[in-house]
């Protein structure tokens, strides 16, 4: 049977690179050596030969009757024919592979990350190693093993490393996948966003029977079995395709387990007597009394406050409980709930009253839609875990009182105290009456002791004094062993970021990293409108100078490179530059000169010679209104023109125009339709009425007329004028711009309003005249 020449055929047996040399690989991505790329290009399918049924001229000076040009054309055609028979190597996109473990027959599909592996090696992610049943114990990271891996031919310890077979295989574009949960109790907030982000960032293929492990937002892992794919087969490609994802319902055993876990948590669920408070929205100046179990968080939201005022968030703790306070703004750049290892503002101290002050000048509050406030009862100290099973049992929740209020600095009242009758105790440094100083000092020196660092007084035999401590590296202090252990863990213990390889020297340092430069920080992208990490694998670095100057996150900078069409000028602009582009349009809008409209108050046309409209600029009339007044006689002083204007007024007011739509107040037809009792006027009355109008008309060629001319016009123009006056009555735009908007939109009211928004300056805005 003949082989299909349009299918890429390549396979190779490669040694698996040890895991410690491929820590950044995720999903189904693999690393292949450079030689694999060369072999793939050599094995690429050959494109069909180019056939030219209609030969074209290959030389510009070809003349069939000139033997010299004919020979040159023949040579050019021969070269083109030779080039058409050359092999055109085309690799499929995306490249997908089938990986087989010959030891156990396990099969999985994968996509390519880079061609940067060492020769005769293939780098596999942890997901692929698990799917092929390759354990970490199969690899050796000692010196002999390293030398064996680098040796040629696989001699020595390198023979002990696993070997897999990699085949190039083009998978069909997937349309459907069914996932089956492997454990009970899954309760994610948004499956669609979670799956879409995980599959898009980490996977090129899906293999039937493989297990997907998806990390949730609270350090949870959700495990799913790929149960079925369409088109039918052992794998599909999920790049550049619309993939429908279906979550299979829990089976009977999983449902019973889920119900059991929920019943166990019912007794200590949020809002119950033995559980933490449910949290929720809070308002200013209203104190909330709540409780929290050890190891749990209670989340609140402050949605409304005066952004110009300073906000104080106070937490009062009862019975010396160890409760922490965290605050984070909800903005496009901050989406996570505040936690011990991920917060913007935090208070870890051992004080019984904790306070966080947020000033309006703080830049992180600039785009805040709400304030997320979290109360956390620490235990031993586990900053981000919310699994109650891993925490010690607590007989009763810890009590607290939370209040957010507007900060008003209190005026300090100066009290003048001369202490003339008192003296200061040298031991406790308190003022006591002079007459009792001897008795006080005897008692104080025998029972009390003063800490020379913090100046606090303790009883000599008290547990607080025995456990009192000061940190050698900072000003922290406390009165028990647990507070010292917590301080060491929070402030002087290295912590690793779960989203990258960053190591922080303290928990506040880790929280600052995760809310600023961490690649895994979740943001709401302003271009794709999805909740995504701020830096993906293909995005630039967070500290890239171009990214810093743009004010965008790396994901937004990369995603903003896509183009769109400007709705004003139809120019193709990058998404990240569209705001600057629209600001240029806004400057043009403010600097545009006012349009020249027809001076006839009944006309709704613009004097625009560029549209082919003949106009009379001396009278400022459009071609339609000036038409009846036109004459080709020489009239430098405008006397004949005034007489024509006067006769036009006489004709309008004596006989009328007879048009049923006319609303001209200087027309008999117009005023008869606008009044219930028409009034007839004599010629003398009409001349006296129109004489001021005619005398005010400036027809001198050296000047431009500014007096209105009340002439009858057509129905379309009059209707546009009425609509323009209606819009101008709203007080936002001048009548000139309203007339121009309706004239440019052919009388469509909605389009005219859009035109005004895009092109016309509003009343009160600075306009360049």
Automatic annotation (TrEMBL):
Ranges of residues in domain DUF7590: 275-406
Domain Ubiquitin fusion degradation protein UFD1 N-terminal subdomain positions: 90-138, 173-249
GO annotation terms (biological process): ERAD pathway; ubiquitin-dependent protein catabolic process
Residues annotated as domain Ubiquitin-protein ligase E3A N-terminal zinc-binding: 647-672
GO CC aspect terms: VCP-NPL4-UFD1 AAA ATPase complex
UniProt keywords, alphabetically: Ubl conjugation pathway
UniProt keyword Cell inner membrane, yes or no: no
Region listing for Disordered, in residue ranges: 140-160, 260-283
GO terms, molecular function: polyubiquitin modification-dependent protein binding
Ion transport is among the record's keywords: no
Family to which the UniProt record says this protein belongs: Belongs to the UFD1 family.
Protein name: Uncharacterized protein
Organism: Elaphomyces granulatus
